[in-house]
Amino acid sequence: MYRPLALPLLVVLLAGPAAAELPFAANPNRCDTSGMPLGCIPLPNEMSGGAGSCNGEKWKYASTNFCTTDPAVNASANELNGVSGMSIEIAWRLETGRPDVLIAVHDSGILWNDAGDMGQLRRKLHLNAGELPAPNPVGGCHPPVGGDPRDCNGDGVFNMPDYDGDPAVTDANGNGLTDPEDLILLFSNGVDDDGNGYVDDICGYDFFEFDNDPFDEVQYGHGTGEAEDSSAEANNGGDLGACPNCMVMPVRVGDSFVADVNSFAQGVVFSVDSGAAVIQEALGTYNQSTFAQQAIDYAYAHGLPVMASAADEDSWHHIFPGPYVHTILVNAIADFGVPTEPNSWLFLNGCTNFSGNLQVSVSATSCSSEATGRSSGIAGLIVSAGRDAVDAHTLGSPLTANEIRQVITRTADDINFDVPGGPVGTPPSTGGRTVAFPDTSRYATQAGFDQFTGYGRINAHSAVAEVLAGHIPPEADVTKPIWFQLLDPQRDGAFTVEGRLAAQRAAGGYTYRVQIGYGIQPTESDFIDIVPFGATR
Known about the structure:
By secondary structure, the chain is α/β, with parallel strands linked by helices. It has helices at residues 58-61, 71-74, 88-91, 115-121, 180-187, 222-231, 261-273, 290-301, 367-391, 401-410, 460-468, 489-492; strands spanning 30-31, 41-42, 102-107, 205-206, 247-252, 258-259, 278-281, 284-285, 306-309, 328-334, 347-348, 358-363, 475-480, 498-502, 511-516, 528-536.
């Protein structure tokens, strides 16, 4: 922690935007008032506007074809009938996240000095009560009955606004408002007050410079944008996170999205031990290590999904940490961006990578980085739904990391442009049109899994609804050989396939089958049985 204290001439402490809404309540009547009957509860103001203004998050979060103007797209099942986005807007009818669900953003840190970004994140940044004095606002502390005694404003979460009016909390960094870095500068005492092994970890940690202030001092901004993509609050007119009630734990592991994988690994261990629920990483590391895989396995064993970027070279090569075992690898799909037929929302984003281990595609304009942020927010919604289901006794225990992956892939909207019957010589992925699309835009996806879109476009509403209903798919995890391990039959001979099957939600046991398919994206008919269906456990 190296930043000097600012000495403002005039202390004027600004709170976040008054119009913001935290907590943003789930409600079955939430809807887009521009396309729904009167009487509904409006979506956040970031989602306002008509079909001609489907920019920002509107098209990405949509659940209908409201943003689509091409009748051919609306009529095409291959185009998912023109539904432009990930159905986040209707997921919010069921689940908007919980403040006890912490999304640990492993990136370049936070721009504390940017007042605009602080307007998005000031109330969303997780504070470690074990390293802080209790808030003491002039008007007194009024926590909710039975709630956190430090929740002085009674909004259901201990966060920065609980220190508003506390004379001990000043604008120490001189950015015009009080924010978590002010608490870091004012209350760091060099003592590990909570005894967790990290001194003064008041709001995240910095594993790039090894101090307690995850400040993005080079002003790169990538980590701040990642935090906003997953968790920015609703109804303040700015960005809109996919999980508007989840909290952010900033973990600085580099000065950009390029990082040392061991810094990332240290951050993952810290995040797990500090109570995070989701690991978010849109990184490209210049190395790899056993430690990093062990850290990801540690998160996996503790129930944390690791949402990982496929990276941005329009290629199939590996950019770590994404290819490690037990990550949930995502890439980006988008509208094409130039006039073309059809006006699709399902073009592979020209900057994003693809992979045989890709799980789902995510609606995003800013490549795999934004895809990672949006999907991390959706993972936060899923984790929140799981915890709500436990509270409602629909589930007996929280979701495991593998169950979260299974829910995400099982409920995704399949993207299949392998359409037969077009004119002779026409690539099947063009849907029968005589003009083929540029190969950076429309790849030959197929039914089920493919290397370009994984299991399809992530569907937030379907995933959340399944969890709240207690419909949790079984777990399947191949542990040996590991992903992308090279095996030479002439050199290695026979080898053992090891894995784990589990269906902890199934009473009375279950039946299963084990199949193998050859190639990077075998079709359903390509698989053959190793263990025929009917085996029981």
